[in-house]
Amino acid sequence: MTTIRDPRGTDVERAVEAGLSEFRNTFTQLQTQIQRVIVGQDTIVHHVLMAIFLGGHVLLEGVPGLGKTLLMTTLGDTLALQVKRVQFTPDLMPADILGTRVLQQDAGGAVKFEFERGPVFTQIMLADEINRATPKTQSALLEAMQERRVTIAGVSHRLPEPFMVMATQNPLESEGTYPLPEAQLDRFFFKLLVRFPTQLELVEIMKRTTGNSGAAVQPSINSGAQIISWGRLVRQVPLATPILDYGARLLLATHPKEGPAAQGLSKWLRCGASPRGLQAMVLAAKARAVLAGRFAVSREDIAAVAKPCLRHRLLLTFEAEAEGVRPDQIIDQIIEALR
After folding, report:
1. Do 202 and 281 lie in a common domain?
2. How many CB atoms lie within 10 A of CB 328?
3. Same domain (yes/no): 265, 182
4. CATH number at residue 204
5. Domain at 280, CATH number
6. Residues 67, 40 share a domain
7. Structurally, how many domains does the chain consist of?
């Protein structure tokens, strides 16, 4: 029997590969532009850019003064996207983020309710010190982060595209803070740990911030539609079934008593990652492969993105917290056990 191949298949594959090559080149240009302003945090910049192309949200954890807000404004300038910042405080209300209905009187004297949009109606929203707001206010972002819409008084309002929430929190302070609910943590694509600068980086930061002139960035993308288009192309990168099986086994191993890799870890794990964790690993692994010049995902790609994708999705026991066990240590042990 003769197998007939679709002659368009090769052309389609070539078009996808050409688009991904253009994406990789533009990604490198974006990194270079941002690094003109942001010193040292190359891994953070890389993952934040990756998240916005994949349609994900990012939780940044680090002490104040490390340039998290500057990163967001620089990102907005480089991508030509609108950025809004909201300072989260205990007295912040959901309406302060989402918007509210207000009475308006038209020229004819008629009075009616109109929806006044809140700062969430932007393309990049910086939720600064998100853990300082009450759980009620934190939960106001759940629908926006997952569904890309806001529902007020039974009426849904679509958010702009692309839409990204970049939240920050200080790991050192606990007074006056509220831990993020698990449902909201699960909606973050990455949790990134912002490290303190090295001595050389501190010197370079001082040179750039205490002089008369600062570096400026140039937009490298013309529209948000291009970001969405490249994100769709990344999703077309093939993923072999054995690689997907590896990712599934890695995720299941984060659940207590769920497999050989989790043996000995059950005393530290109260609850493992959700399926969103595997979705994040798969998409991030595809992007990592493309950015490395490959058009197929490997096990190493999955393992390399496991920490930022899973560390905020693991619930630790009191025993683990008492012994100072961190989620990254657990993920390392699971990856080692699956080799």
Report:
1. no
2. 15
3. no
4. 3.40.50.300
5. 1.10.8.80
6. yes
7. 2
Using a CB cutoff of 8 Å and minimum separation of 24, what contacts does 214-219 make?
214/37, 215/36, 215/37, 216/36, 217/33, 217/34, 217/36, 217/37, 217/74, 217/77, 217/78, 218/33, 218/78, 219/77, 219/78, 219/79, 219/80
Do the beta carbons of residue 166 and residue 88 sit within 8 Å?
no
Write the pLDDT tens digit of every residue in 93-139.
998 999 888 877 777 777 777 888 889 999 999 999 998 888 888 88
Please indicate, yes or no, whether residues 282 and 228 belong to a single structural domain of this protein: no
pLDDT confidence of 281, banded at 50, 70, 90?
very high
Chain mean pLDDT for the chain:
85
Residue 266 has pLDDT above 70, yes or no: yes
Residue type, 273: A
What's the predicted TM-score (pTM) here? Answer: 0.87
Q: Is residue 319 part of a domain?
A: yes
Nearest to 83 by CA among 244, 217, 281, 192: 217
Task: Give the type of residue at 134.
Answer: T
Q: Residues 30, 60: contact at Cβ < 8 Å?
A: no
Whether 117 maps to a domain, the answer reads no
Q: What's the pLDDT tens digit per position in 67-91?
A: 788 888 888 888 888 889 999 989 9
Q: CA nearest 328: which of 299, 312, 314, 307?
A: 307
Peptide bond before 162: cis, by omega within 30 degrees of 0? yes
With cut-offs at 50, 70 and 90, classify the pLDDT of residue 263. low
Sign, CA torsion 29/31/35/40: negative
Residue type, 58: V
Q: Are 314 and 330 in the same domain? A: yes
Query: What is the pLDDT at residue 296?
Result: 87
Report d(CA 82, CA 56) in Å as an integer: 16
SS3 assignment, position 248? helix
Q: What is the mean pLDDT of residues 239-266?
A: 82
Which structural domain range is residue 72 located in?
Answer: 12-88+122-132+160-209+221-236
153 within some domain: no
The answer to whether residue 94 sits within a structural domain is: no
